[in-house]
Amino acid sequence: MTTPLSRRRFFQLAGLTALAFPLRGWAALDTAGGDEVVILNDIHLTGIPEEKIPGNAKDDDDHLRAAVQQILALPKKPAAVIINGDLALSIGTAADYAMVRELIAPLRDAGIPVHLTLGNHDVRPVFNQAFPEMKSASDLKDPRHNGLIDLPSTRLILLDTLDQTPGPAGKLGAEQIAWVIAKIDEVPTKQVILVGHHNPQVGGDTIHYKGGLTDTADFWPEIARRPQVKAYIHGHTHEWTQAKESGIHIISTIACAYVFNKNTNATGWTSARFNALGFQLKLHTLETDHAWNGEAKWFFGRQPAPKKPAPKKK
């Protein structure tokens, strides 16, 4: 008798449990029961009109306004919107964060939860004063602004990688690392996605390591030992790239503000769909005729390591 293969078993047998590939030929892949969030990063807003925007055809607030309208036009309301760091253009001021509040208001008015993380252009005390209602999910002696988003198949843990402003590099710190590990261990049967502004100093292009997480060596071995951790999603580099380290996907999502090289990158935002198989990321560029607009990829996570059989007694 032949037993039909489940979709999950098919991918396991096909060896696709830790791959990422373009979705163009896989558009019909079942995502029933999946969950959707939207990720933006590097919005770089300023409340100071005379501040100049690096190499932009238009102001970054126009970029975010356009992105918000695109998100509101989605056929399905996302479970959450994450803006992953570098909320401010230069060094975060009250005026900068007032601009952020103004521009995300339509999302919140539509009933969409908005989560903000901090990057190297942000100032934590000023941010906290500007958004007193946005309480951190953590309560650390070294205060950090963390978040948790729990979906049926997935837990997203939002990191606070801000170390010093100004300064490009980031740091988690021992106390936050311990908190993150505890939150991972709470959900052994869910996939876990880590979302932080700074890139880790593993995987990807080493040119970005100097500005990445300086305590990656203290952090990465801990998450590598936990098979439910499927990916680390970051901003900071203003690029769309994918890498892998210890079986964990490392993904840089496109910036909503300026890019460093218009020939190799684009401005926009990313939608993410999660289910038991993994997750799909889809690009939404603000230039609707850009070659990347609508590009989507599936990322399939690690499977728990099989238990080693007990040694036979002699």
Tell me what the structure shows.
The protein has helices spanning 7-13, 60-72, 94-109, 124-130, 174-185, 216-224; strands at residues 20-22, 35-40, 80-84, 114-117, 147-150, 154-158, 191-195, 229-234, 241-245, 248-252, 268-275, 278-285, 296-300. With 314 residues, the protein is an alpha/beta fold. The chain has a single domain, classed as Metallo-dependent phosphatases (Purple Acid Phosphatase, chain A, domain 2). The strands form 2 sheets. Strands 1-13-12-11-2-3-4 form a 7-stranded mixed β-sheet. Strands 5-6-7-8-10-9 form a 6-stranded mixed β-sheet, covered by helices on one side.
Unreliable spans are: 1-34, 304-308
Helix content: 10-25%
Counted beta strands: 13
Name the CATH superfamily classification: Metallo-dependent phosphatases
